[in-house]
């Protein structure tokens, strides 16, 4: 009689998830094991134990979701032995796969929606997407593990729902970012005053929306993932106020049939029982660095350095239709680093207040998201928002997909649409509805003084008509 392997899954920190079979680590995702990220702005919620680090290093397989430094953490990856088997999504540009291959990993680029069998108990499938992120689906024994990390669904909800129906709610787990502190929060007005608002105003809606999405996917267990970090620089530590805690989920979660697991747990997949690996749930504040990393906010740019910044923004033909100007303030000097050839009557623009060293490193490598997510740079918006267009085109499509012109943007969109035309069409229509129609309705009802009753009616209808 064949014995059944004892299977478990462990949430180790931030987006690092680990699968175990018979007491041995099989697969580790997005291994951030030591050190900091985003120009020393982020640290792990608490340091990993040496035992946890060793278990990651001894995993048979690794998977990297995307290029953000809390997922593709170079300092941690350099700790692995040459030849380690590593899987990556089939992103639009091959930079990640090529870089990891050069580091000595045995890299497999996963074809879209193709199952790969790693062990008798484990199969994995990758859904790469236009956001230059990816979702990992894992069939582990009779369980389905859905690692959304910080990826949007990008039209893949129907495909995932089919798999959760096959496995059932009780045997399905989702690992997902829920929160706002993994994106730009450091918005300021013209006087430099922060405008993000009270942290508590975001939590109920954000948590309930996530609960609704997880319910729609048909998953029975939610594991807190991809947000177990703290801000540790002097100039970004304020953002810790916007962290979503387990207690916040207990207060605002409204899908009682879905189990919300605490962060940092080991789950026995045969029984569903779990043990907390960090029972205090409190971040380790000893990781604060009491500095601004390598940055000096008083440093200024030379004329040649200013030109490098202008050259960086100047190559983005893709932003001509959405922004009229981009300004940067470095030290005490402000310069216009991008100007649309023909300005609108009511110009749209953005001003970044940013320290020299992080700015220059960003434009050297092209990953502008690292500045936005670090939350030490200040962002002043003029008649526009960063979403749904500016950040994706600068940071996702330019930084990761290497798409800078409009012809390339159309080609990339067609690439993803051809693979999943129905799903991508629904995804784009949903984004248009949220970013354009809902925002316009909110602005109109607020101006008319009727926003509170309209908002109440909207949420009432959502409860009565599932799926809208």
Topology:
Blueprint: E1 7-13, E2 16-21, E3 24-29, E4 36-37, E5 42-44, H1 50-57, E6 61-63, H2 74-77, E7 85-89, H3 95-102, E8 106-110, E9 115-117, E10 122-128, E11 134-140, E12 143-149, H4 157-167, E13 172-176, H5 203-217, E14 221-224, E15 229-231, H6 246-252, E16 259-261, E17 265-268, E18 274-276, H7 303-314, E19 325-330, E20 333-339, E21 349-353, H8 356-365, H9 369-374, E22 378-382, H10 390-398, H11 406-419, H12 421-448, H13 451-464
Parallel strand pairs: 3-6, 6-7, 7-8, 12-13, 13-14, 14-16, 19-21
Antiparallel strand pairs: 1-2, 1-17, 2-3, 4-5, 5-15, 9-10, 10-11, 11-12, 17-18, 19-20, 21-22
Helix pairs in contact: 5-6, 11-12
What does this structure look like?
It is a single chain. This protein is an alpha/beta fold and 468 residues long. It is 31% helix and 23% strand. It contains 13 helices and 22 strands. It has helices at residues 50-57, 74-77, 95-102, 157-167, 203-217, 246-252, 303-314, 356-365, 369-374, 390-398, 406-419, 421-448, 451-464; strands at 7-13, 16-21, 24-29, 36-37, 42-44, 61-63, 85-89, 106-110, 115-117, 122-128, 134-140, 143-149, 172-176, 221-224, 229-231, 259-261, 265-268, 274-276, 325-330, 333-339, 349-353, 378-382. The strands form four sheets. The chain has an eight-stranded mixed beta sheet, covered by helices on one side. The protein is globular.
């Amino acid at each position: 009689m064949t014995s059944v392997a004892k299977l478990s899954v462990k949430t180790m920190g931030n987006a690092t998830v680990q699968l175990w079979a018979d007491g041995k680590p099989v697969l580790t995702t997005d291994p951030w094991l030591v050190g900091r990220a985003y120009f020393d702005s982020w640290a792990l919620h608490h340091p990993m134990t040496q035992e946890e680090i060793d278990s990651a290093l001894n995993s048979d397989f690794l998977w990297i979701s995307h290029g953000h430094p809390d997922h593709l953490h170079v300092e941690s990856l350099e700790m692995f032995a040459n030849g380690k088997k590593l899987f990556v999504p089939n992103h639009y540009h091959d930079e990640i796969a090529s870089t990891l291959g050069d580091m000595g990993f045995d890299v497999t680029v996963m074809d879209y929606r193709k199952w790969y069998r790693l062990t008798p108990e484990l199969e994995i499938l990758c859904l790469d997407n236009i956001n230059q992120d990816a979702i990992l689906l894992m069939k582990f024994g009779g369980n389905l593990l859905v690692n959304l990390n910080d990826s949007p669904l990008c039209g893949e909800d129907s495909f995932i729902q089919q798999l959760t129906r096959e496995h059932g709610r009780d045997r399905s787990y989702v690992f997902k970012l829920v929160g706002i502190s993994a994106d730009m929060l450091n918005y300021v007005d013209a006087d430099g005053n922060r405008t993000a608002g009270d942290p508590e105003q975001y939590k109920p809606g954000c948590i309930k929306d996530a609960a609704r999405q997880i319910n729609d996917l048909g998953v029975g267990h939610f594991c807190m993932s991809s947000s177990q970090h703290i801000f540790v620089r002097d100039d970004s530590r304020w953002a810790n106020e916007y962290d979503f805690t387990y207690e916040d989920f207990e207060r605002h979660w409204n899908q009682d049939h879905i189990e919300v697991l605490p962060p940092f747990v080991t789950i026995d997949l045969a029984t569903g029982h779990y043990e907390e690996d960090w029972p205090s749930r409190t971040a380790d504040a000893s990781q604060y660095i009491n500095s601004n990393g390598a940055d000096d906010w008083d440093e200024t740019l030379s004329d040649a350095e200013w030109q490098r910044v202008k050259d960086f923004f100047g190559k983005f033909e893709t932003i001509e239709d959405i922004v009229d100007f981009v300004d940067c303030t470095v030290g005490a000097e402000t310069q216009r680093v991008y100007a649309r050839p023909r300005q609108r009557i009511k110009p749209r623009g953005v001003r970044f207040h940013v320290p020299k060293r992080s700015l220059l490193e960003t434009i050297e490598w092209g990953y502008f998201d690292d500045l936005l997510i670090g939350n030490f740079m200040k962002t002043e918006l003029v008649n526009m928002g960063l979403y749904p267009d500016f950040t994706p085109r600068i940071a996702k499509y330019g930084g990761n997909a290497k798409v800078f012109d409009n012809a390339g943007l159309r080609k990339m969109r067609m690439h993803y649409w051809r693979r999943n035309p129905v799903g991508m069409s629904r995804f784009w229509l949903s984004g248009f509805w949220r970013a354009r129609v809902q925002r316009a309705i909110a602005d109109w009802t607020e101006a008319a003084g009727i926003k509170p009753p309209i908002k109440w009616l909207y949420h009432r209808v959502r409860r009565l008509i599932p799926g809208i």
